Amino acid sequence: MDHPAVPWLARIALVVFGVWTTSIVLEHGYTGFLAVALADTWAAQMLVDLSLALLIVLGWLVGDARARGRSPWPWVLLTLFTGSIGPLLYLSLRRPRDGAAA
């Protein structure tokens, strides 16, 4: 994950996904996804699947942040409240370890 392209790809995804997510939240509200998830079993399955994927990402993120001497808790909270935006922001601000490619 210390590839120099990772922060730039994360920044691009963060901007595009962040703008799209913001427009959806403004139109449907912060909890608007719950109505969709509760109305259809496929939507509920996707919500559970994405939640599990985010938990796996958080497992990596916590270990990575600690290995770099950073507190993982701001990123954990951000992920819990914003979903993928939290890990995307973490990756976009993450610096390579000493000795890794800049």
Question: What report would you give on this structure?
Answer:
This protein has 102 residues and is mostly helical. It has one domain. Helices cover 76% and strands 0% of the residues. The chain contains five helices and no strands. Helix 2 (32-39) packs across helix 3 (41-67), helix 3 (41-67) packs antiparallel against helix 4 (73-82) and helix 4 (73-82) packs antiparallel against helix 5 (85-93). The longest helix is centred in the middle third of the chain and has 27 residues, at 41-67.
End-to-end Cα distance, whole Å, is: 12 Å
Strand segment tally: 0
Overall geometry: globular
Number of domains: 1
Query: How much of the polypeptide forms β-strand, as a percent range?
Result: under 5%
Q: Taking all residues together, what is the mean pLDDT? A: 90
Taking pLDDT < 50 over at least 5 consecutive residues as the criterion, the unreliable ranges are none
Please outline the major beta sheet.
Answer: none
As a percent range, the share of helical residues equals over 70%
Radius of gyration: 15 Å
Task: Decide which structural class fits the backbone.
Answer: mainly alpha
What order do the helices and strands follow?
Answer: HHHHH
Number of helices: 5
